[in-house]
């Protein structure tokens, strides 16, 4: 265990440069005293780690020191780094192990490749939960690959995009657009392209892109983009622009996790029942999300949603004979 921690300490210093004992202790989940002992052990083993005193001091490796762990290519590193959504390893109970693996991947790359890989990985975000829980995205592999190439390559993207329609309505014609990609987000099983069009913020569902072609022109991408913060802000802006529908729901307290796919504004629990007020885009949206949750979840209000779900249930019984 200590050997693995010593290796992780070297990789942290290799990747981050001068780092305080407090930060190292927090990252390695040990005490500062343990970090100091580990630094002494590394020095005794011939690893050129040294301490800098003062307000901005910390531990660092001598310039030019390298590690040789693996022959990962930048593309392979991007694929692994791009999978590093905080929710995934945490949900699997692999947070520390995942972080350690990511440090090894980053440290194993040459300087130029490391910069390229970490920059590219910062352009993709995979999130769990959201308004819908939908694993059937519908995005074609060719389109998604072309979009990824433009996002990672930092070039403009020409797309043919169709706007969304309600079920049963005729789809509108697809329109051609040139987009400056900012990042790719997967939320609740759907891929979204965040970009700029004529300098204005735009979000495109990848499954609605019929054709995609990366161009030779560099994309106009703002510096220092925090993709998760940008996604959350755009999602809230989208919700604020829609009229919205507030729905009163009840669920047994021990089945509260059934509502993980909805946005809850108010909540209270009493006598073993949890009641919430949840936000949806409209009646159709609420019906689509809540139908798979019945009968665990009871819809108390509004009446028109209760009626719509009852009619759907009757139609299902008739269809089943």
From TrEMBL:
Keyword field contains Phosphoprotein: no
**A Pfam family the protein falls into:** HTH_11
Identify the species of origin.
Pseudonocardia tropica
Q: Which PROSITE patterns match?
A: HTH_DEOR_2, WYL
- Annotated coiled-coil positions are none
The alphabetized UniProt keywords are: Transcription, Transcription regulation
| Record's protein name | WYL domain-containing protein
HTH deoR-type domain ranges (all copies): 2-61
InterPro entries recorded: CBASS_pafABC_assoc_protein, DeoR_HTH, HTH_11, PafC-like, WCX_dom, WH-like_DNA-bd_sf, WH_DNA-bd_sf, WYL_dom
